[in-house]
Design goal:
The chain is mostly helical. The protein has two helices and two strands; from the N terminus they run αββα.
Length: 80
């Protein structure tokens, strides 16, 4: 593969990484909770269960793979 192909692979991998990152953020935002009670002042957190957990896990794996591919593609571009 020539240098131009690695450049395109890096760009595509970066785009997929950004989309995956946005998916993670949306999953966290949609599963955010804030509750108050009389005994405790407040609880804040994320409750990720069922389908959201599957989506979150897939987004994390895709993000890890895209960052890894982007890193190696950048190395190949700079070495050639």
């Amino acid at each position: 593969m020539n240098n131009m192909n690695y450049k395109y692979i890096k760009i595509i991998s970066d785009i997929i990484g950004w989309i995956s990152c946005m998916g993670i953020l949306v999953t966290l935002i949609l599963n955010f909770y804030y509750e108050t009670s009389e005994t405790v002042l407040f609880n804040v957190g994320f409750k990720i269960t069922d389908t959201s957990l599957v989506y979150f896990s897939i987004f994390v794996v895709i993000l890890f793979l895209s960052v890894t591919i982007s890193h190696f593609a950048k190395k190949f571009v700079s070495n050639h």
